[in-house]
């Protein structure tokens, strides 16, 4: 066996090995920090809301996962934006190789870019408020946007089945898990939380706990997805090097 003298230009690869190591370290740090922030929010809500009256004057809004001004929301914006960046890199790689699913990659990249902006601007909350002002919603439909978003997500997920099946089995399973975890939080627990908010209000102890679970599931789903993306990009970095050996 001999090694060819020609080497693949590093600029043609989506990432170098060192860059991938750095991304994995940032990913691990994001997992740890998000877990710590979620725990801090949960503990604060238990302390403030488990009594007869919430002491909002002592609340640290930076630790409230349901606030747009919190550190957890800031991290969510960064993680979803990073996922969009990784998806654009993967889309570029698929386009360069004329892959059959290049437009699926680009669509997901645009979707995560929108999710990142939504985390920052709270678009879905504004849409829900607009819908609620026109249609009377109650129970699980109290947050009006959740049910339509869930239906659209399931239809989109079904349309992406061939794309998911193109992945190695382990990564395909992780993709399904990431989608399930994210949607269970963004849609499932959002709807349950809405039914509780209608009766008890958004400052009730049960609603606060449900909100922490919801936000935690959303973040976990995105982080699992980012891990899948890093694994895919790692394969595209390693495979050309293996092919260069004969």
From TrEMBL:
The chain crosses the membrane at residues 21-43, 71-91, 103-123, 143-164, 171-196, 216-233. It comes from the Bacteria. The keyword Transmembrane applies. Keywords: Membrane, Transmembrane, Transmembrane helix. This is Uncharacterized protein. It comes from Phyllobacterium phragmitis. The lineage of its organism: Bacteria, Pseudomonadati, Pseudomonadota, Alphaproteobacteria, Hyphomicrobiales.
């Amino acid at each position: 066996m001999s090694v060819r003298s020609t080497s693949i230009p590093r600029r043609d690869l989506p990432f170098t090995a060192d860059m991938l190591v750095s991304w994995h370290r940032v990913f691990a740090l994001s997992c740890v920090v998000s877990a710590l922030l979620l725990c801090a929010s949960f503990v604060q809500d238990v302390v403030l809301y488990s009594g007869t009256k919430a002491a909002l004057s002592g609340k640290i809004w930076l630790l409230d996962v349901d606030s747009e001004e919190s550190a957890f929301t800031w991290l969510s914006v960064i993680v979803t934006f990073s996922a969009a960046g990784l998806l654009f890199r993967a889309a570029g790689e698929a386009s360069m190789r004329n892959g059959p699913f290049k437009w699926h990659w680009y669509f997901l990249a645009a979707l995560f870019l929108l999710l990142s902006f939504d985390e920052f601007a709270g678009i879905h909350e504004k849409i829900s408020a607009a819908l609620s002002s026109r249609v009377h919603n109650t129970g699980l439909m109290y947050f009006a946007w959740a049910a339509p978003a869930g239906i659209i997500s399931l239809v989109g997920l079904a349309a992406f089945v061939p794309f998911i099946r193109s992945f190695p089995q382990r990564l395909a399973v992780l993709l399904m898990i990431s989608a399930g975890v994210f949607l269970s939080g963004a849609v499932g627990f959002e709807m349950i939380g809405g039914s509780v908010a209608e009766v008890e209000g958004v400052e009730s102890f049960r609603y606060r706990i449900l909100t922490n679970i919801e936000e935690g599931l959303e973040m976990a789903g995105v982080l699992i997805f980012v891990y899948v993306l890093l694994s895919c990009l790692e394969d595209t970095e390693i495979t050309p090097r293996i092919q260069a050996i004969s």
